[in-house]
Specification:
It is found in: Cell membrane. This protein has nine helices and no strands. By secondary structure, it is mainly alpha-helical.
């Protein structure tokens, strides 16, 4: 393709690609926000309720662990189809960008919970024991010791989750979820347009690189070890 042909192609498809990019950012941002709001406390509960934990409750731990494991084991495409009634109940439809946020959020919550649990496990037990010896309550230890000490790993977990949600949002395009995945399927695959397929893939890669770069920068900033 000549430079003029490339310029003409982008002028014809720029609005489509820009809108799809914003739809992807909207889906990932909304699902990530809700996923973190629910998943981070859930991960803290999983860590503190285990045997020998600050708030030991093995029954609760096993029950929550089973739910989280089930949520993580269901493939995302299957999850989207399985919860169509729930999605329709919550947003009135199961097609479109807003509807895709529901399965994205449900898929993100158990993923975040396990990552946060793993981040908290890395905190040296000596720090917790020192805080306990000074009379700190379990909630104070969680707030003042566990979460601050695990913050670099937590930020890295947030980055991993957002990158995963970008790939999930692309899968949502296969069932009319909107975003870059939807453009790749409808305009690239169905119309056999290799160019638009390649451009959407490139834009997804760029989006992932931006998220990873920002995440790495934040980790370096908060890591004082």
């Amino acid at each position: 393709m000549s430079f003029d042909q490339i310029a003409d192609w982008f002028s014809l498809n720029s609005n489509l690609l820009i809108n799809a990019t914003w739809e992807t950012i909207y889906m990932v941002g909304a699902a990530g926000l809700v996923g973190f709001i629910v998943g981070i406390p859930l991960g803290v509960i999983l860590h503190t309720s285990k045997k020998g934990g600050l708030l030991e409750n093995t029954r609760l731990n096993k029950a929550l662990g089973a739910v989280v494991n089930i949520g993580r084991s269901v493939p995302f495409l299957v999850l989207m189809v399985a919860i169509i009634p729930v999605t329709k109940l919550l947003v009135g439809t199961f097609i479109g960008t807003t509807a895709a946020i529901v399965p994205l959020t449900i898929g993100a919550i158990p993923f975040v919970a396990r990552l946060i649990e793993g981040a908290l496990i890395e905190v040296p037990s000596g720090l917790v024991e020192a805080a306990q010896s000074m009379g700190a309550t379990p909630l104070q230890i969680i707030h003042k010791v566990l979460l601050p000490e695990a913050m670099p790993t937590i930020i890295n977990s947030v980055t991993i989750t957002l990158v995963t949600l970008v790939s999930y949002s692309a899968m949502a395009g296969t069932v009319g979820g909107g975003g870059l995945g939807d453009v790749a399927i409808r305009y690239g695959f169905h119309r056999y347009d290799v160019t638009i397929m390649a451009v959407t893939v490139a834009m997804l890669i760029i989006l992932v690189q931006i998220i990873q770069t920002i995440g790495d920068a934040v980790v370096r900033r908060v890591d004082h070890r």
